[in-house]
Design brief:
With 549 residues, the protein is of the alpha+beta class. The protein has helices spanning 2-34, 36-50, 90-100, 104-111, 127-135, 158-161, 173-177, 179-183, 219-236, 279-282, 292-302, 336-341, 345-352, 357-366, 393-399, 409-420, 447-462, 526-529, 531-544; strands at 52-55, 62-63, 69-82, 118-125, 141-150, 163-164, 170-172, 187-193, 199-205, 213-214, 240-247, 252-259, 310-312, 317-320, 323-326, 333-335, 424-426, 441-443, 479-489, 492-503, 510-519. The strands form seven sheets. Strands 2, 3, 4, 5 and 10 form a five-stranded mixed beta sheet that branches. Strands 12-11-21-20-19 form a five-stranded antiparallel beta sheet, sandwiched between helices.
Amino acid sequence: MSLRILYSSGRIVFIQLILLIGLCALLLRLVYLQVYQDVFLDDQVFTRLDSHYSLLAPRGKILDRNDKVLALDVKGHSVGIDFEKFKYEDQVIIFLSELLKKDPIILSKNLIGRSSGFKEISRNINFQTKEKLKSLKIPGLYFRENLRRSYPEKNITSHVVGLTDIDRRGIQGVELVFHNELLGEEGSFEGIKGSKNTKLEGKRVEAVPGKDIKLTIDINIQSIAYHELNKAVKKYNAQAGSIVVVEPKSGDILGLVNYPSFDPSNRKNFTDMSKLRNRATIDVFEPGSVMKPLAMSAVLESQNLSDSIKINTSPGWIEFEGFKTSDFRDYGTLSLSEIISLSSNVGMVKLCENQDIEHLASYYKKFGIGRYPTSIILPAREGFLPHSSQFTLRDKVSSCYGYGMTLSALQIAQAYSVFANEGNFIELNLFSEHRFIDPIKERVIKKETNEIILNMLVQTVNSKRGTASNARLTDFIVAGKTGTAKESLDEETTYTGTFAGFVPYNNPEYLAVVVLSGLSGEDYSGGKVSAPVFSNIMQQIFLLKDLKI
């Protein structure tokens, strides 16, 4: 009996021991799940997050009419710090500041005292710098591939192409206007990493590159215009300048340059923000005598006049509504052609004094004066043309020789394209693939009127006494007109010299407007400073086409 009881008691103890061991194992398992498994899960979550990243979308290229690249994305690298692994040391800061070309004091302030998180310390470093940094084997230093915007033509196309900020967002020119089209769509990758950073699984969505934008600009013509403008500004000590080159039959803008310009690839040197201004489209000014052919067109269409009519301009000045207007000298009696070719202010006053104000204003509008250049898309100004109801008698006659209104170099090019297109307005365009809005095409003046004006423009360049003789070419006949406008500001007087013309006169292939502003030396007239620039540009363009000049 006692042996049975003893055996039974021993069995119970054994079972209890087994249960106790099981309970202990269960408790240990719970502790593991509560502590160690939480750490494991946290690591997995971190790993999953660490392997989730964006795939950058290449921004679209900007191209010239012949697919020459004017702006594109190129691969670069950024360098950053993982502060959990990074150990702050003075010598490390010195190495980093030297290779990254950063102020060591500022760099030190950004890095010292931090023990967690990540921080990008430099963007768009080149491959050589990256490899030098990697060779230092600094703990916590990491690298990422990125994209940066590059502008191969630099200053030459800066005002047309524009630029982006450091994050490749358009902030100027075509880059700004077509930012959304150029942008593209970012891709992504999300996966889980193994112990050796091997992706076990993942989902990849490829980035969609942005759309390319093709311009009407011809980089060869653009380059010619840019270099000639820079030479002219320095030669005549001008403060600024603009050149617009156009293919008049199509309305395509082949060249558009300004001085001063800027290098969009080098933002660190941006100290004068006025350099960013596209003067050819933004800056408006009183044009002076380049307006005379427009006013003459309106006069011819209001009256049945012929070039045989003579106008007495003696004694070389005239007083109208209490204001005195003068010519450079007493030209005596002039024909209508001579009034234009010699640029007689007195002659224009006498022709315009009896003109209907509304008639003149309506013709100016037809030429694009005071009208926003919608097809250009780039930021532009419409200039100033008073409403006919606001025209005084003085305003009426002064408008006939280019005062009392303002317009840009681009608008002068638009107006003169009418004369190059047999009296038809064809809206200028900057985009090669298609126009983004329906272009305006309309007749401005009769073909017969245009022929008369065309002859006047030819005489201005090619007659013995014409004001634009410096615009001549050897083997082609040029048609064009000079303009000189005076500006007084803060007791300082400066001049703007302009030439607008096209060649060959009877079948125009190229039209150009040259504007030099802020002139104060002995040479300031459009005939002396701007006309020769036109000639130089056209000679090089025709040579480019393998035509003999």
